[in-house]
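Table S2 (text version). Query chain:
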Amino acid sequence: MKGKRKEVYIQLTYDGKTIMVSSDQLRQTIEKAKFKPGVEEICLRFNVESEVIDIPVKISDMRKAIKQVVLSTKLIPNSLNEYLEDLTQKLVIKPIIPIAKREHELEKVWFYISQKVRNNVFLTGEIDVGKTAIAHEIARQISTNECPKEFYEKRVLLLRPDKLLNIKSDRVYENTVRKIMNFLVENRKSIVLYIDNAFFMITDELLIMILYACIKRYNIPMIATINSEYFDRYFLENKSISKYLNEVYVKEPEMEDMKPMIQNHLKLFENRYKVKCSEEATKFGIYTSCLSESTSYEPGNVISIFEKAFREARRKGKKEVDKQCILSCYNTYLENYENTPEKEKKATAYHETGHYIVQIKNSYQKNVKISCVSILPMMWWAGVTIPYVDQKEYAIYSKEYFIDEIAVFLAGRVAERRIIDTNSTGASNDLEQVNAYAKAVIMKWGFSDKDGNRNRSYNYEDYFLMSESKKELIDKEIQELVDAGMKRAEDIINENEGLLKVIAERLMVDEILTGEELEQICKEYEEGGKTEEVEKTAETPKEIE
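Corresponding structure-token output:
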């Protein structure tokens, strides 16, 4: 059962005058209009109060008007309003910001949902990576006719399985599910079904029925979002449905792609909060966003951080977002930091700089970059060096690559010894990572060089069932791998001791350095010249008691 159409009026302007044209009148006029290929503008003729008016209109503008007319009709019956939402209609009334740097994912979505059968796509990935934003962008493009022509008359309907599961009465629940299924089947040629967090769909038999029917029987175009772990566990392992599914994995974006992805949001925040955000502050916020509780570079997380920073700037009466506004978004323990002895701060600075130098100076991990180095205590870290993988750089994952990885983990302890003569607990997390990593290299990834272990892969559970001699053999190889990583870290630190000092002293002043700032320091150091700021911090270090 379809709802009643509400009359909509379209505003048109000519010669400085404005007329309101009813949707019925516009519909009739558009139906009479003849389009010729290559024509960008046509003339629409209206009869307003016995006066004939010709108005030149761009075809693109007219298509938007057509969409408004089409969406003036309510498709979803009132009884299902709580469980289905016409997302396309909503986006005409309240447009959203177009997303950037997701062209590949969007193209794949259009490809899959345009098929006659198996016309579904599951957007998978980590939390906040932008799966929902891609689905909403598809709906936005349909709402503005930026979509393929066959989708001009379609609507994106959002199904809310979480709302259905809240229905207390079994009878009401069953009747509602039946009504939804009948409605979807009746309108299958004019809709795209969208399910956010499709995990809910496999928690109940009737919801599973809807999912199977849409995908396998009625071929209703469908977009679903779900955590990649849940997709693998509950959908791919289900052989009865996995062969009908298409997956598009949404990766964490490249660092250089983040700015264009959030640029429109920054403009929105500037207008909303009447505060500016400089190029320098934007880069700082992007590079350090991993210091938030999310510890990721996912667009949703970065946008959330900037909105908090804009609010903080307005609250403090600032005209621009600065580093302090951005730092206020992170759980820093500045009081603890201020009470930390200078020698411990310096040890932390050398520790984190050690990680950085070995990461950028090793020979095999050229695909790993550093986003930022911080000596501020945050969450469970006394200091932190945050890496990210540059997808544009190719790497061969050889045994030497893994030794470099171990060297990076151990580099903090090596560098820290330049300040304190003994080992501290600051490397405890690094050592946990080293042990787990080295164990995986030998046992899981099959990089053993010993007779009887070559080209072997073991489950970790197998270790406890092994003979003592086999355990000793594996433990010895793990230790040899760790020793090789330690030697490599020591060699790189010794070769770059001057750079280690320069960066560590700079960290003592700035407390956080972005990857871009660190690259500039390294460039200036290697060219033999330093900026005044680097010169100052390197030549006049703070006195240590």
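Notes on Table S2: Residues 335-539 form a domain with the Methane Monooxygenase Hydroxylase; Chain G, domain 1 fold (CATH 1.20.58.760). The chain has four domains: 9-70, 78-249, 255-330, 335-539.
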